[in-house]
Amino acid sequence: xxxxxxxxxxxxxxxxxxxxxxxxxxxxxxxxxxxxxxxxxxxxxxxxxxxxxxxxxxxxxxxxxxxxxxxxxxxxxxxxxxxxxxxxxxxxxxxxxxxxxxxxxxxxxxxxxxxxxxxxxxxxxxxxxxxxxxxxxxxxxxxxxxxxxxxxxxxxxxxxxxxxxxxxxxxxxxxxxxxxxxxxxxxxxxxxxxxxxxxxxxxxxxxxxxxxxxxxxxxxxxxxxxxxxxxxxxxxxxxxxxxxxxxxxxxxxxxxxxxxxxxxxxxxxxxxxxxxxxxxxxxxxxxxxxxxxxxxxxxxxxxxxxxxxxxxxxxxxxxxxxxxxxxxxxxxxxxxxxxxxxxxxxxxxxxxxx
Length: 354
Fold this sequence. Notes:
The protein starts with a strand and ends in an 8-residue tail after the last helix. It has helices at 10-23, 28-43, 54-62, 91-109, 126-130, 188-197, 231-244, 284-299, 315-327, 333-346; strands at residues 5-8, 73-78, 81-85, 111-119, 137-143, 165-169, 177-181, 206-208, 213-214, 223-225, 269-277, 329-332. By secondary structure, it is of the alpha+beta class. The chain folds into two domains: 1-62 and 318-354, Hypothetical Oxidoreductase Yiak, Chain: A, domain 1 (Orthogonal Bundle), CATH 1.10.1530; 71-184 and 227-300, Malate/L-lactate/L-sulpholactate dehydrogenase, NADPH binding domain (Ribosomal Protein S8, Chain: A, domain 1), CATH 3.30.1370.60. It is built from ten helices and twelve strands. It is globular and about 55 Å long.
């Protein structure tokens, strides 16, 4: 049995995160909303974006890099579109506001696009692509990463980030199809998790400035991430950044602030959500039934030798969510040590283990 982690309850994890943010002055309702999304990230196995981010978030709040009481508001609006000004608030709050607005607009217009400026890191993209599913809608999410770790193809200046994409598609009896991917081979959050666990990275995630494989995550500053599909991934990262950042007036390129190193500056992070109401294209039940059929056809299709199962996007996260609800969420000892130090610093009750 692995001993490099302990397990914590989902409710206890959320309550601990709430205590931490309330101790730093976030309003209780905001603290609960952020904590709920962060705990959900860990519950679905997105451990690079869950409680591991709590200490850096708190540090940014303490040093003025995040506005504790933002005035999140719409500054441009039409029937099926809007731009949300996040007033440098927690990204989870800003993006949640944008998604809720896009859902409301899509109910009227059939589709809606809402972009954000002056937001911050908001956790895994899939959290926001999934939310429209509760309303018989599709969700497509785009974001500019919070630090540049990717140069243009063939270059060395890091002008692009992981710039993730997520898509949530509802099904009927099957789990929803949820894609959540960086435009780099690995998201930088996975590099941070490897470093925290004292593990090496596989070849193909990063290279150094001589073009050689870089496998030590503690030396990540000496190189950069590789894009998926070589030049195609670079092009995709660029387009996502233009849609999620430039279109909404958010930071892109040289304007992106490295929130891993700078805890004081306003990041002006950009995100965007596109919501599509299924009823604008027919009967949602018929659509979901067709998705079920396709999912089963793919899962039951012929497999290569040695392959036990063909997975659909989001199935493994769905499975983790079910297991972790019953067994508890695994948290590495190194992260627990950081959380213990944080609880002592903030004078709050520590996170209990199962």
